[in-house]
Task: inverse folding
């Protein structure tokens, strides 16, 4: 067995219950994550802890697309053992990362990706989406499980919430159509999960508006 994978399993056994104790996440709709078989999990990105939050929602190994720097950092063994897929955020295209993710899906694995491709520090409800999740689904026919993260990571208080929506199926559609449904679904999940005051403070830009600006 790969040494890095052993490191990951040991650390996960510690971090998973510890995360629940420290942040007390509210998890809704986790039954939408398949217990086996290929799937792409995709949602908004607001904090560095988001991938860990997603990871603790399932017993399965989640292969997260993560910035390349993490693989080379202090906890590189953990991220490599977890099967994270390095992405070069300084490059407009990452064919190697896409190919690696598709390989995982074709082997029946679980991929987690943030279509916004970076943390959202703005007052926009969502940033424009990259096409990675949609292309993965299009090429492998794996469903996309949308999720929305709201609230804050507050120690020993119920502040963070994640909601998983119903699977989005490719159904032979082109990536742009899949991406549009994913964007609209995550936006709707965010709107339903946020308190009214937060919804009122956020600006919603439609999928078409973002596309017209690009």
Result:
């Amino acid at each position: 067995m790969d040494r890095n994978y052993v490191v990951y399993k040991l650390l996960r056994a510690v971090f998973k219950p510890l995360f629940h104790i420290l942040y007390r996440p509210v998890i809704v709709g986790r039954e939408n994550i398949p217990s086996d078989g290929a799937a792409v999990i995709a949602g908004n990105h607001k904090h560095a802890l988001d991938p860990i939050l997603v990871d603790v929602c399932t017993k399965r190994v989640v292969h997260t697309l993560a910035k390349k720097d993490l693989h080379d950092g202090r906890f590189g063994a953990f991220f490599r053992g977890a099967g994270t897929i390095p992405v070069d955020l300084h490059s407009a295209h990452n064919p190697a990362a896409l190919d690696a993710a598709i390989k995982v899906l074709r082997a029946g694995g679980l991929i987690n990706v943030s279509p916004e491709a970076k943390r959202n520090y703005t007052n926009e409800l969502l940033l424009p989406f990259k096409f990675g999740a949609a292309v993965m689904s299009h090429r492998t026919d794996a469903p996309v499980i949308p999720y929305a993260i709201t609230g804050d990571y507050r120690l020993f208080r119920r502040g963070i919430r994640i909601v998983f929506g119903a699977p989005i199926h490719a159904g032979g559609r082109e990536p742009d159509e899949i991406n549009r449904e994913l964007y609209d679904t995550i936006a709707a999940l965010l709107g339903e999960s946020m308190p009214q005051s937060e919804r009122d403070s956020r600006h919603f830009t439609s999928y078409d508006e973002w596309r017209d600006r690009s």
Observations:
- The first strand starts at residue 26 and ends at 28.
- The two ends are 45 Å apart (CA to CA).
